[in-house]
Amino acid sequence: MLDTINKQLRKVPTRVVYLLGVLPALWVIYTGLNAVDPVRGIEWGLGLWAVRLLIATLFISPLRWVGLNLLKFRRQLGLVAFAYVVLHFTAWLTIDMGLRWSQIIPDLYKRWYILIGMSALILLIPLAMTSNNASIKRLGAKSWNRLHKLAYLATGLAMVHFLMIGKVYTVEVLTYATILVVLLAVRIYRNGAQSLIPV
Ligand code: HEM
User: If 47 and its partner were Cys, which of 17, 64, 88, 197 is the partner (CB 3.0–4.6 Å)?
Assistant: First the structure.
């Protein structure tokens, strides 16, 4: 059964991930514009999809361990996740803060959850920039793999950012946090804690 699915997946072009990746953004804009608070609706929606896609990217390895091979889509999925992080950040800068730098700069270090979200975004930049064949060649597979372990730390920080926002922990945020903890635990169990640390 999984063999058949893997065989079919081999025929699917990777650019499909980019095409599908646009759909949540369109949905977020549509629902956001119809929400009571469109700014929050769009900003939160993009942040939520960023979390979902970051976690989905981390699922690719464990799925391969159980026989489902989605490896060829991982780069595209990671880049789409990064695009959502950037869009979420851009929504905060523009429609939320109105590019008022006098407010933006203090917010960056006064509000802990913003600082943590920012750290996650910064950690993801080298990953996005090296998600191409030329970088793998230039860095070498070993260094490249080491660098890309930062994805776990970045997603962990993104989750902390998400948890810090809610004054009340909803089922939704606790579900994502639990999924991430289970994913990390499975990885540690299988490959050891060093598999999460970029050293
Ligand atoms: C990997 C990076 C990030 C992820 C995955 C992420 C994700 C999220 C999520 C899921 C939410 C809450 C949505 C909800 O409650 O439904 C959120 C809210 C928010 N995020 Fe991020 N975020 C990231 C980075 C950032 C950055 C860099 C900034 C700004 C510098 C930022 C600013 C905010 C703000 C202002 C809110 C709304 C808080 C509120 O309404 O009280 N985030 N983010």
Answer: 88
Position 54 pLDDT exceeds 90: yes
Q: Whose CA is nearest to atom 25 of ligand 1?
A: 117
By most ligand atoms within 8 Å of CB, the mutation choice from 165, 168, 169 for ligand 1 is 165
pTM confidence score: 0.96
Task: Assess whether the C-beta atom of 32 lies below 6 angstroms from ligand 1.
Answer: no
When computed from its CA atoms, the radius of gyration of the chain, rounded to whole angstroms, is: 18
As to burial, measured by CB atoms within 10 angstroms (0-12 exposed, 13-18 middle, 19+ buried), residue 1 is exposed
Question: Which residue range is the domain that position 159 belongs to?
Answer: 2-196
Going by CA atoms, what residue is nearest to atom 40 of ligand 1? 40
The CA distances from residue 52 to 57, 129, 134, 182, in Å, are 9, 21, 28, 15
Q: Is the CB of 114 under 6 A from ligand 1?
A: yes
Give tens-digit pLDDT for 14-34.
999 999 999 999 999 999 999
Q: Is 48 in the pocket of ligand 1 (CB under 6 A)?
A: yes
Residue 158 CB–ligand 1 contact under 6 Å: yes
Total structural domains within the chain: 1
Percent of the chain exceeding pLDDT 70 equals 100
**114 CA distance to ligand 1 middle (Å):** 7
106 has pLDDT over 90: yes
